[in-house]
Amino acid sequence: MKYPLILLFTICFFQLAKAQDDDRNRFAISAGFELGIPNQSIYSIGLGGSLKAEVPIAHHFSLTATGGITSVDYKNGAVHELGTPGSDTFVPLKGGVKYYASQGFYFEGELGNVIETEHFKQNLFAYSIGPGFIIPVNHGKTGIDVGFRYESWSKNVLRETGLRAAYRFGW
Fold first, then answer.
1. CB atoms near residue 54 (< 10 Å)
2. Digits of tens for pLDDT over the chain (171 positions)?
3. pTM above 0.85, yes or no
4. What CATH number does the domain containing 8 carry?
5. In the chain, how many domains are there?
6. Domain that holds residue 31
């Protein structure tokens, strides 16, 4: 009688542990496409790509590190007025915290630096905040990460609504 109870307890324990092994408890790396829609700016639209690393620090919290490249197009009137080419290129480097509110749904905030690589070659402070969700693929080890954010860069260079769609690899 003792062995079946131990076996039953062991099976229940591993099932419970497996149920807790979700997106919130994994080191992950994602590579994604970025779309930015500037608000009240000389820029019209931004396109780019990014890599993000995520390290769990508690059951619902992870630390994030994001790096990428973004090309932002000037509005037609700004090109003629400023006498510049049609776009600027920026390299955003940010770190932050991700909070999983439930399975696959999260809120994220990041702070960091944006390096302008074209005309003014300035460093800008940046922050972003927003929700997102992960659609599991391959039994939850990988997934599609879709995030929305409000982002602002210092010196009123850019304020935008952003979308990030990425493929996420978890371990």
1. 23
2. 455 545 444 444 444 344 444 555 789 999 999 999 999 888 889 999 999 999 999 989 999 999 999 999 888 755 555 555 678 899 999 999 999 999 889 999 999 999 999 877 889 999 999 999 999 998 778 999 999 999 999 988 899 999 999 999 987
3. no
4. 2.40.160.20
5. 1
6. 2-170
